[in-house]
Write a structure and sequence with these properties.
Number of helices: 5
Largest sheet: 6 strands, antiparallel
Radius of gyration: 17 Å
Number of domains: 1
Number of strands: 6
CATH class: Alpha Beta
CATH topology: Chalcone isomerase
Strand content: 25-35%
Order of helices and strands: HEEEHHEEEHH
Strand order of the largest sheet: 1-2-3-4-5-6
CATH architecture: 3-Layer(bba) Sandwich
């Protein structure tokens, strides 16, 4: 009987470890604020965690990071196209569209189930990592604000996820 309990504990530990998202070392001062999952027609697309300084209330004027751990394989082109669509809703300047597309193509490779993309914003610079490896850095505050509004703006298309990330009312 104890062997079965030990096996169950190991499996549970592995499941918890898989869900836990690790930030790159340079973001060591950030702590989880909130987390949730994005589902589309019942299918989980990814789990998200918002990190802020010491896990404090989110503030656009303080550094933060958003981690997405994918639950399914998604091609880079799809991630980029959907991101651009969403950014358009928040007033993306037409003259920046192709430059931002190029930035995101470099930042977001094809993802496989279990892959993680982390984006961090300090008010000026945006940095991205894929599975812990840096993919792109961009000194463009407008890009950073427009991009992260996809999840953090009151008009987000995923209000329940936003609420979970911010640990507040929508």
């Amino acid at each position: 009987m104890s062997r079965w309990l030990a096996t169950g504990a190991v499996i549970a530990g592995l499941m918890i470890a898989e869900v836990t998202m690790a930030l790159p070392a340079e973001l060591g001062g950030l702590r989880p604020l909130g987390e949730g999952s994005l589902r589309w027609f019942g299918f989980r697309l990814y789990d998200a965690t918002l990190y802020t300084q010491q896990g404090q209330v989110f503030d656009w004027n303080r550094p933060f990071a958003l981690s997405l751990r994918y639950a399914r394989d998604i091609p880079s082109a799809k991630i980029v196209d959907i991101s651009l669509e969403e950014m358009q809703r928040y007033g993306m300047p037409d003259n920046r569209r192709e430059a931002w597309r190029s930035t995101m193509q470099a930042a977001f490779p094809d993802v496989k189930q279990g892959d993680e993309i982390v984006g961090a914003f300090d008010g000026n610079r945006v940095r991205f990592w894929h599975n812990g490896k840096p993919t792109r850095t961009l000194d463009d505050p407008l890009f950073g604000r427009t991009f992260f509004r996809i999840w953090l703006d009151p008009a987000s298309r995923a209000p329940a996820l936003r609420e979970q990330l911010l640990k507040s009312a929508p």
